[in-house]
Amino acid sequence: MLREIVLLAIGLVLLWSPRSLLRLGKPTKTRKKTKVTGGTVKDRMPSDHSLWIEEEFRRGRNWIDFGRGLAGGLAVVATVPGLLTAGVSVPGASINQIVFLTEAVIFFSAVVLQMLRVEGRLVLFPPVFFVLGLAFAVVGWKVALIGFVAIWTLNLVLPNPAMFLAVYAGGIAIVAVFLGSGIKPAAVMAGLAITPPLVAILTRRRLVPFRKKNKIASR
Hints:
By secondary structure, the protein is mainly alpha-helical.
């Protein structure tokens, strides 16, 4: 029991720690350029809010987010069922329902926490890699891997992070149901991915990717 509690605590720290607490190194003052299709080197246009795979995959913090989502999610799904079975009894509710709702609350709160950034003002950050990592715990590694490859392929025609996450939400739900992950996990994963765009719409804010060049890319 103690082992499961410690593992769950580690998982919660990984999931609930804001991204801003995990900054590594000092920001560079040099202005980097990014290669685009055709071999030339161009700066990102101010009106371009899309996710460039070359930029995103080179950014170490993104992979830290991915690892936190994956490891933290696995820790939760590995420990919550056993801990709740041993210590919780709710009349009129099955243990499976309690486990499902508990994990869902943990995951949704984690996604919301990863969205929030304070850079002089409150902004909404799209936790793309964090959500992609969570998928491995929620719908299984096969579905998550297919979803990862598919969404980055489709990203070539997606205009911004909100659309990226919205398309991923629909796609991962379809693939999860088709490959037998279950309707509930598919619905939770779709909900986790669509939450950032929905919050952005409801608060009338844009999901703002972190850019080293100007720290916050503003429209």
